[in-house]
Amino acid sequence: MIEIRRDDLTSAVAQALIGALDADLRARYPGDGSEYFRLDPEEVGPGRGAFVVAYDADTPVGCGAVRVIDSGVAEIKRMYVLPDLRGRGIARRMLEALEREARSLGVTKLLLETGTHQPEAIALYSKAGFSPTDPYGGYPPSPLNLFFEKRL
Question: Residue 48 burial by CB count (10 A; 0-12/13-18/19+): exposed, middle or buried?
Fold first, then answer.
């Protein structure tokens, strides 16, 4: 039974999942030099966003975040599911939870960035109603970056 719970970005559980995500990204994009690690705790604090963890029984198996970046606009960040558990709908459930969090914050448009070497993420976002969009924010131009948006 998968349960999605809010968590603190600085918790040991959150840091372990983010560490696994960062290792996965480094393996997919070796030597790229991209800065994909940054998310500050206050960006996902009350009234500004949320960080969630997916649990299978009591075992943390995935994470994701949403942060408000402008009036009515938020960004999905740090989506990750342990590789052995992918394909079970966990990421979809986390994304749905993050969309609910975004709506509760008055968000009407979600943005996200992913990479060309993450086909499972691209498939998830496409199936969830996200469409390709132009780069946004401070992301540097790169042929490895893909940008998506969804109206809520």
Answer: middle
- Looking at residue 66, its pLDDT comes to 98
Tell me the angle at which helices 90-104 and 119-127 cross, rounded to the nearest 10 degrees: 50
Q: What is the C-alpha separation between 73 and 71, in angstroms, rounded?
A: 6
- Residue 22: which domain range? 2-151
CATH number at residue 21: 3.40.630.30
Tokens of 132: 């390709």
Domain count, the chain: 1
**What value does the mean pLDDT take over residues 107-112?**
98
Q: pLDDT tens digit string along 54-103?
A: 999 999 999 999 999 999 999 999 999 999 999 999 999 999 999 999 99
